[in-house]
Specification:
Two copies of one chain form a homodimer. Chain A has about 230 residues and is of the alpha/beta class. Helix content of chain A is about 40%, strand content about 25%. The first copy, chain A, has two domains: about 110 residues, Response regulator (Rossmann fold, 3-Layer(aba) Sandwich); about 100 residues, Orthogonal Bundle (Arc Repressor Mutant, subunit A). The first copy, chain A, contains eight helices and twelve strands. In chain A, the strands form three sheets. The first copy, chain A, has a five-stranded parallel β-sheet, sandwiched between helices. Chain A has a four-stranded antiparallel β-sheet with strand order 6-7-8-9, with no helix packed on it. Chain A has a three-stranded antiparallel β-sheet with strand order 10-12-11. Chain A binds a DNA duplex (30 and 30 nucleotides) through helix 8.
Amino acid sequence: MKILIADDDPQILRALRITLGARGYDIVTAEDGAAAINAMIEHHPDLVMLDLGMPRLDGQAVIEGLRGWSQVPILVVSGRTGAADKVQALDAGADDYVTKPFSIDELLARIRALTRRLATTDDEPVVLLGAVTVDLSAKQVTRNAAGVAETVRLTPTEWLILGVLLRNPGKLVTRQSLLTEVWGPHHVGDTGYLRLYVGQLRKKLEADAAHPRYLLTEAGMGYRFSP
Amino acid sequence: MKILIADDDPQILRALRITLGARGYDIVTAEDGAAAINAMIEHHPDLVMLDLGMPRLDGQAVIEGLRGWSQVPILVVSGRTGAADKVQALDAGADDYVTKPFSIDELLARIRALTRRLATTDDEPVVLLGAVTVDLSAKQVTRNAAGVAETVRLTPTEWLILGVLLRNPGKLVTRQSLLTEVWGPHHVGDTGYLRLYVGQLRKKLEADAAHPRYLLTEAGMGYRFSP
DNA sequence: CCGGGTCCTAACGATTCCCTGACGGCTGCA
DNA sequence: TGCAGCCGTCAGGGAATCGTTAGGACCCGG
């Protein structure tokens, strides 16, 4: 479980990194709003903790920016206690709002509450593609060739693409949504690398990469995982 | 949007019913834990607001009971401000925790935040055309021929035309409106390709393309989807 | 400094899609 | 009967998209 913490106070960042790290979370930090957006694109965390008063890009703007292309749970941690601030942040797309100073136990409980739905609704532990089994949560692929189990290695980008496709079985996934979910919102036209990675995935997963059975392409629209 | 409010204080119940009712929510109330469970079974609300200190069945027990069989969002509204209480409720399955006294604006914002995810599930209907099923949101067409499901592929332009027709069941769709919705507003008069694509759609969807049953043509006017 | 791995760019045939033009069938009317 | 619209179909060329290969930029652990 990866958490992105964005706060302009290095002390708070350090304390949270230690506290949450001890609970088994992977921690990524950012010291301003722009860095938070970049970290989001780079690390794809499962949850974002945001301070509101940050330089370069205000927390409020970060929420609005993220919500344009990501559904990641957002937990605002702010010193502003006014109802108007809370309403503004929540309506912009934040999922919860905690005021400083906060109880660390309560914060942890709210993190668990926010991530619980992902953990339970995203329970697609293992997907079968013919002789290949894909375990999304364990990030492991094994191919069963002639009775011999053999592990296949995927790169991080390949995992991201495969994850989006496998989480929408049977549904068409637009090139555009694939690009924004993997590379962030600032990719409009160029599709060169997407074709490349899909080709590599087919080489690793399909029995016959030239005639794919599971990772289908819909010309002019996008790709589809056919279970 | 239906909300179940469980609180043992009739005054609070009345105030919340009026306030939330004015915002357009349907309100169901319960004055103790057991009644809350019963109301949940009877009314299937979209959100539950729970007080912790209730007679007959404590709010904590209600959360645990509900979570055994329902994923409904639970918002705890309690006078207990201790971190231990919050942790206990959140870990039992509550999604948010607000302490009394609360700002009504903040409460409303948190309700919107909790119900937002449900609302964004796009539900474009699945349309049945005899042995062919069309899923507009998944962009998928399957033909059920002699018990064997077979997928039919449509091109982007075919999807656009079919979408316009299927979203207006029974209604006549003018050639002109079809042209503008698919090719933009700068197409007047020319209808050659429209006939072509409708013909291809019939070939892929109709049992007998020469005598269409669903994609009907109105001479001189346009086309009509007859469900 | 050097390999290994990942990410991305650039270019090429090959495939698919879109649109044009032409032809034949049907209906209504002079 | 001939003619004029309108509709459905077929074939083909141009354009966009797709799959693939090759190679450079970058990071990182020997």
